[in-house]
Amino acid sequence: MDEAERRRSQPTVNARWGNSLSVLLGDVLFAHALNLSTDFDDTNISRTIARTATEVCSGEMIQTQRRFDLQLSREEYFRIIGMKTGSLFACAAELGAVISGASDRVVRRMKNYGVKIGTAYQIYDDCLDIAGHGS
Amino acid sequence: MTIASTSPGTEAETGKTLGTDLRKGKLTLPVLTLLESASAFDRERCCALVLEGKLEEVTALLQNSPAHDALGAPIDTASELIRAAQDGTRATRPRTVVSMPSSAWARPCRNCSNNCAVEFFAGPAGFPRKRNMAQLKIREMPKDDRPREKLAARGASALNDAELIAILLRTGVEGANAIEVARQLIEEYGSLGALSRCTVQELAKIKGIGFAKGAQLAAAFGLGQRLARENLRAAENRDTRSRSTSCSEPRCERCTRNRSASSCSTRVTI
Lengths: 135, 270
Fold this sequence. Notes:
heterodimer, A: mainly alpha, 2 domains, 2 strands, globular, B: mainly alpha, DNA polymerase, domain 1, 53% helix, elongated
């Protein structure tokens, strides 16, 4: 989406094979996650993964719509990164707890932990994008 | 974890293209902070730079205006979030786990020698998982745990008996992978020695083995025995050669060992 050339010191899929292939590969990855989730009898697991995919993509869509919008508020920024990154980390933390047989209370707390860590990660990443550039 | 106070990291260090947010018009927290805290004049100038995508200028503005603290404040916000996240989970950690060795709640996997916590994933609360580690197909296991990959990377000594046998078996049966079939096999016979004395017919009767795999196993054990015998013979030859007096003695004809007739202890019973 950011049309970056490199990730993890490797050329990105986008740089190598272009945009349409990257989008399709992303679709394949989401589908693959859902496919793997069918190994579990608990349908809540695949539901959480599907909802997270929706959330992440919606966050990215809102961010794309609000590009160059100088009216963007701090609250809206937090909502966007909560959706695109917070929900992703929350999904991992939540499902880890679910699969380990944790209680509902622990699952909720782990989800909350994921949201916070994911949001913090995105803020650091955003700072890095600016601070690291040209230095 | 502070980015601003230490080196922010170049593209080479972070391994990714940087500066893409501004180029794409994404307004992130450092930019929002800069816009919020700037004077009316600076704000206008800043807005213009953002809209024109003047990446270098905005970056310079952000980095060289400590009064704005446009990088420090977001990092503080992130650090605060991490603290809050950690605080939120503190109460959920069972007190007992802290003092307990991990082996107490995560028993090592039976399929490998890597101490992976299968029992933990199987779920202490009886989590309804369709398949456990033994039922997992080997190709679905982490690469490092697969017997062939492990053998190639770390040599045969890194594998346990079940994993070595699993390589010979190649495939398992419905509901039990090759490692599990091998494990059950060893468990049933009690030892490798006992298993090695089985005939092909005996092995073939076992579920998941059959004639072909039975023959493969018997052949592998046969090879192992020959190798052991060969090593033994080589060791004995070295012994014999070191005793110079026995060099001229005729070879013992009663046994297959390369011993001199006088030193051979093999008894032939008639």
